[in-house]
Amino acid sequence: MNDPRAHSSDLELARSLSRRLRGQNGQQAPRAEPSPRYVHFDARRAAPDAWLSPLSRVGAPFGAEIWNELLDGCLAAADAAGAFLMDGHGLVVATRGALRQQDAEPIGGRLMGALDQIQQIDHANPTCTVAIELEGSWLTGVRFAQSSGRSMTIAVFAPAPLSREARDVIEGLVATALQE
User: Which residue from 72, 159, 148, 156 is spatially nearest to 111, judged by alpha carbons?
Assistant: First the structure.
């Protein structure tokens, strides 16, 4: 049975190995139950009031955490599936929700081009917004000008374009984040 010269087509050897693997009494091991499906937990839906102003919590966030909390607030305000933040050069600084960094980069570049075109039309307005329908969802980009002359852009994927109220909430979150 342990002979290395045994042929692989030896049926008796295969039967004896099978009996050995099943155990002495020949019963098979019980099958494991399939694991339950992954259930997406969204803390914003469980405690919506906790996400209205995440930047006002005690113990101000630092570094990348502030951008993540800003985007979490944007997701909650817009009831969005994903959001990302770009600096004035079009580089993606942070992403949240159902959006990958490698997807945000090309979308963000095109969005920046559209916002540049809008900014050329309306020079006086420090903020500008564009909404684009993509595959049944809406990508809304909002560019915020800073007092230093730089800008930042927040893009949100939601079932509908941003409402004026949601945009005002996001504008407040951005103002709070920039004060830190």
Answer: 156
